[in-house]
User: Which sequence fits this backbone?
């Protein structure tokens, strides 16, 4: 009879991968469940959406990624969707009705898009979380230029053509900034001379942000530099703009005009959502079955050791967790929120695995301490901002060309697998010298419902 403790891990993102790797040498039976068959390097997902990279360059089959762990004989990988969690009976319920019993559960289900109560906007402004999202956005971006070419035949369709040539990105966090900068590059450097009736360089890329600056997680100095770099690329940056409506014809938003708020209408047929995220629906499942408390974004509020208050056998990590980092010396500072970035998810994955092993040994669990290595964001070609925390030296902040080079090499380094690193390096090198984007093939054109003239 197998008396090993059963550990179920839900999700194969950065946190789930690290948890598996940390537990694979322990005397436990591990079951990893994910609804896809691949691990995705999400920081470069926008490159797939903007035709800079192909999907295999930033993803890898889970079974191949964890092949060394599989050889140890205690890891089972299942492609399935978790529909519910039965905390009372310690079972994870799957989409085919099967149930996975567990002794310890690590939930790393990630996050989804948040439209702040306006879920109907999703139809017109897709977000970017999965490869499927990236393929849909790529089809819309490339398809918009094709539709503009068809509209350019008569002057009576000038307004319609301009709407197809206007691209709106909502949200000026790293994803929104990167999307806006890259879309401008496509219009100015990749597509010129490829169309007869339109001038792609006249494309209008608008970045809307509700707060007063872009890249709000960066210090104001770097935030301002990022804005300047975006504007030099040709992005129309509009801060202090609150979106109040999105439909097939464009975006409606409010902005201050002196002492009053004024409503503006921006005609556009291509809108990308990068403004908000919400915890996976499994957060609500944990709230219902395990009494978990959720924050405003639907993330699970966890204890310092990443477990649930009434269920120490359940740990929540990654984007689904609302976690606080305990300082090395509690007397010198208060716990700080852990940001929803890949280093945080990786560190939580390792910490959760360590606490599972400590519980198996009858030892007390440890509070999670996040090590902040800083923030990176690329603005566009030869433009990026870097905010690093260097031990013994403090903050290291710079922007421009050298920041862009640092961003390139950092992302290549953290990609999973030598093949992916090599492909990305070659693709980026080719794109740098030729301005070409080889991943512009679209399997299915965007829905014609968005074109009232068809």
Assistant:
């Amino acid at each position: 009879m197998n008396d090993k403790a059963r550990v179920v891990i839900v999700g194969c993102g950065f946190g789930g991968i690290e948890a598996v790797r940390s537990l694979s040498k322990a005397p436990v039976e591990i079951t990893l469940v994910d609804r896809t068959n691949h691990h995705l390097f999400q920081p470069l997902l926008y490159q797939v959406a903007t035709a800079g990279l192909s999907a295999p360059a930033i993803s890898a089959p889970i079974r191949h990624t964890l092949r060394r762990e599989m050889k140890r004989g205690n890891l089972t990988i299942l492609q399935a969707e978790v529909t519910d969690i039965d905390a009372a009976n310690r079972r994870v319920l799957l989409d085919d009705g099967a149930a996975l019993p567990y002794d310890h559960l690590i939930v790393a289900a990630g996050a989804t898009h948040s439209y702040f109560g306006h879920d109907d906007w999703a139809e017109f402004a897709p977000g970017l979380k999965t490869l499927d999202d990236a393929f849909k956005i790529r089809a819309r971006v490339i398809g918009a230029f094709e539709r503009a070419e068809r509209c350019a035949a008569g002057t009576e369709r000038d307004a319609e053509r301009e709407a197809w040539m206007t691209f709106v990105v909502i949200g000026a966090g790293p994803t929104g900034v990167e999307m806006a900068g890259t879309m401008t590059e496509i219009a100015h450097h990749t597509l010129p001379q490829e169309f007869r009736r339109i001038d792609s360089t006249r494309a209008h890329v608008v970045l809307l942000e509700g707060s007063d600056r872009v890249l709000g997680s960066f210090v104001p100095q770097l935030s301002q530099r990022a804005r300047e770099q975006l504007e030099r690329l040709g992005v129309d940056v509009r801060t202090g703009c609150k979106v109040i409506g999105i439909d097939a014809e464009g975006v409606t938003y409010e902005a201050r005009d002196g002492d009053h708020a004024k409503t503006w209408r921006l005609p556009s047929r291509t809108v990308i959502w990068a403004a908000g995220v919400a915890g996976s629906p499994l957060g609500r499942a944990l709230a219902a079955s395990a009494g978990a408390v959720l924050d405003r974004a639907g993330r699970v509020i966890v204890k310092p050791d990443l477990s649930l208050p009434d269920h120490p056998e359940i740990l929540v990590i990654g984007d689904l967790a609302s976690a606080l980092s305990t300082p090395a010396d509690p007397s010198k500072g208060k716990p700080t929120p852990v940001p929803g970035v890949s280093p945080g998810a990786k560190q939580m994955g390792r910490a959760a695995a360590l606490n599972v092993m400590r519980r198996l040994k009858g030892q007390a669990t440890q509070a999670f301490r996040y090590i902040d290595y800083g923030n990176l964001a690329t603005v566009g070609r030869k433009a990026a901002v870097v905010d690093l925390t260097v031990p013994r030296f403090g903050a290291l902040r710079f922007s421009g060309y050298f920041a862009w080079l640092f961003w390139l090499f950092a992302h290549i380094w953290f990609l999973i697998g030598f093949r992916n690193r090599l492909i990305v390096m070659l693709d980026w090198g080719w794109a740098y010298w030729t301005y070409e984007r080889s991943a512009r093939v679209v399997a299915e054109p965007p829905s014609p419902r968005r074109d009232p003239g068809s």
Observations:
- The chain has two domains: 5-35+80-114+278-360, 119-275+382-450.
- The two ends are 66 Å apart (CA to CA).
- The chain is about 30% helix and 30% strand.
